[in-house]
Amino acid sequence: GTQFKFSTLNAIGPAGYVRVYAEAKISERNTLRFLYAPLQVSGTGTLPTPTFFENANFAAGVPTKGTYKFNNYRATWRYTLKNSERWKIQAGAGVLVRDAKIELQQGTLRVADPDLGLVPIAAFTAQYNFTKRAHFVFDFEGLGAKQGRALDGAAKLTYDISPRVHFGVGYRLLDGGANVQSVYN
């Protein structure tokens, strides 16, 4: 297909997003974590040049709606290596389910390139406890290979509102890509 910038369709990103974690401690040292992180961005603009996408031709200068979806679901198992008054360190593995789609629409012409896939990931968490309720957390899930990578790392400060609810602020880096002939990114 023809390379194009998705931002030309005025799809420059969401104002916010939702990311929900749930953890289940299944034994003293074993924890299961589940993540639900939907992301969908859409907008309407014009393509600067004729664009060939998924066996269809889209005209330049015509209102074109673009939709980018990258929903992310994960399940990870973590083993607690250390759990002291100051430190909690966990390592483990899991699976990421990627539910992605790029779609273009001009009038009645609507073409989508969906992608559903499973990616194995490694997991690591290091938590330093300032107090019983305030923590610094480094959290990483991801893996890389010659075919591509999926990386999700965060450094954050968290505060326990209650024993089951936590609030946090920090910096998160999401990165991924594929190095295969059928995909360009």
Descriptive key words:
0% helix; two-stranded antiparallel ribbon; elongated; nine-stranded antiparallel beta sheet; mainly beta; 185 residues; 69% strand
Can you walk me through this structure?
0% of the residues lie in helices and 69% in strands. The chain is built from no helices and eleven strands. Strands 1, 2, 3, 6, 7, 8, 9, 10 and 11 form a nine-stranded antiparallel beta sheet that branches. The chain has 185 residues and is mainly beta. The protein starts with 19 loop residues before the first strand and ends in a 7-residue tail after the last strand.
Shape: elongated
Distance N to C terminus? 12 Å
Radius of gyration: 20 Å
Main sheet specs: 9 strands, antiparallel
Number of strand segments: 11
- Structural class by SSE content: mainly beta
Q: Segments where pLDDT lies below 50 for 5+ residues?
A: none
SSE string, helices as H and strands as E: EEEEEEEEEEE
Mean pLDDT score: 90
Helix content: under 10%
Element layout with pairings:
Blueprint: E1 20-25, E2 30-37, E3 40-46, E4 51-53, E5 56-58, E6 63-83, E7 87-106, E8 109-129, E9 134-145, E10 148-160, E11 166-178
Antiparallel strand pairs: 1-2, 2-6, 3-6, 4-5, 6-7, 7-8, 8-9, 9-10, 10-11
What can be said about this structure in brief?
This protein has 185 residues and is mostly beta strands. Strands 1, 2, 3, 6, 7, 8, 9, 10 and 11 form a nine-stranded antiparallel beta sheet that branches. A two-stranded antiparallel ribbon has the order 4-5. Helices cover 0% and strands 69% of the residues.
